[in-house]
Fold:
Amino acid sequence: MSIVLSAQHLNKYFYDPDKFQVLTDVSFNVQKGEFLSIVGKSGCGKSTLLYLLSTMDTEYEGQIEMAGTKLTGRGQDFLAHFRNEHLGFVFQFHFLLPEFSALQNVMLPGLKLGKYPEKEIEERAMEKLRLIGMDTYARKPASKLSGGQQQRVAIARALINDPTIIMGDEPTGNLDRANTENVFDIFRDLASKGQTIIAVTHDPDFAAGTNRTIEMSDGLIIGNHENKIQ
Amino acid sequence: MDIRIASQIARTHLLAKKRQTLVAMLGVTFGIAMFITMISFMQGVNQFLEDSALDASPHIRMYNEVNTQRPGLIEQLNPGKFNVIYHQKPKDEQSRIKNGMTIAERIERAPGVLGVSPQVATQAFYNNGPIQISGTISGVDIDRENRLYKLTTRLKSGNLNTLKTNPDGLIMGSVLAEKLNVRVGDKVTVTTPKGGIRTLRVVGTFGFGIGTVDNTKSFGNLSTVQEMLQRDPSYITDIHIKMFDPLQAIPFGKQLRAMYGYYTEDWAKANTAILAGEKIRNMLTYVVSITLLVVAGFGIYNIMNMTVINKIKDIAILKATGFEGRDIIAIFLLQAIFIGFTGGLLGLGIGFGLSYLLSITPFDAGGFISIKTFPVIFEPKYYIMGLLFGVVTTVLAGYFPSKKASQVDPVSILRG
Structure:
């Protein structure tokens, strides 16, 4: 097993309204093919940590390395390209582009990467939608889908470029039990095929099903334990 | 590849809010349509004024400026001393151009010269019964003069050729003829300042549409006017020159002046007021048009700003999924360019329509000015300029909101 993500001594401050330390000396490594969950109470800094790992938030101290690339101190364009190629996101709230169809939403990051011709990207997008059970809604505009449906499309979008790491902020937050299990199984399956999943969650059952759980409180890692998989 | 996705997203955004897009477009359309209409009309007016001024006046007029200032003999011998001279009379200097005919022939052979007309011009009194009106009479070679001023097209009545067969013929300004109450065939007595009196027969009337010409001027035969002034057949006071290119006249005039030593006046100097008016009208056109476009630009700026604010979540998502700042700029700038370009094209169409309507609108100038409809010129140059203005304005107006969009921090939006 190789290390696909390494976070070293991360410190993060919020300055508004007062200086406040959100993360304190957070360090951990993630192995390739690992399904990792980050848990903790609201405000413990777990989402903040995820946004640092997502490379979108660049104001921190410490060092982040992913897929063998040091990401600390890189320019925005480099990071954008890196995200496009190596990272997939599922956000806390379903975030699709409302004017586009579900299929187009899934295709966009693929078109941006430009690794495959458009025809093939469309096929791949359909395949991802089928995986998540949304293929029948492919042509529907995103604004006409329910919250849960949008979230599932967002998951399909996160998968389109076969990213090295998939990150989710409450990826199943809007889903019912059956769909949560479905998404969970998909994540497990992807992890077993070598993709890495990092999910921030409130759900203890969800966390219990992952390979490893990092527990956070007040910006510190207070627990880091392997889960026994059934 | 990137531009294709950006344009796809831009198109979707534009189509999603058709009404807003249309309103933004109409702003540009209106600006450009007004620009086209105004500039076509203003340039038409300029062209018309310039044409009528240029048609009636030579490109270069060469004449002998009679210099009446003359230092006294004592003054010359005793400069700077206490000299007193009373009632010094000016020297009798003729306004003749020496060897005028030869000079005219030589100028005629120069390249770029359309025509040369040597002539004798003098003040005159026109008498018809009790009416006495002062004016000018030019003794000309009517064929040469016709070549310069297209007199045939300016004739209101009569015939140019009659002047050639009748040495005592006179072609008179139409307004002058009206004032004297004479028509073709009537006789007029003409008195020169030197006292020569001659009765001439009106064989034609002309109208240039310019008061100072139509009110005062007549054309007679060169030899007849020379006789009236009691001069010899080589007596020439003015040489009128027309060039193929009016702009060439200015350097050519200077050259002639240096060559022959006579005073030359080019059309630009003679029509300073018209040219100044032209500059002012141009200025006015550009100021108004640019104001309209700036207003349209602010409209687009506003709409694009609103779009960026409305789409801030989308921007955050696009950035999160790997779109770079320049992709975001492209998305929004393309929208602005589309609005500017289509709005501009529409504006060109409407501008053309308005100009065309104006150009067929009857304009009653009282039969005095030779014009029936508003003068409008259709010049592709202005259409290209209008479109360029429109696109540049919208690009500028769209750039700043796009720049702002590209600087959106996705984290602060996605965290909620």
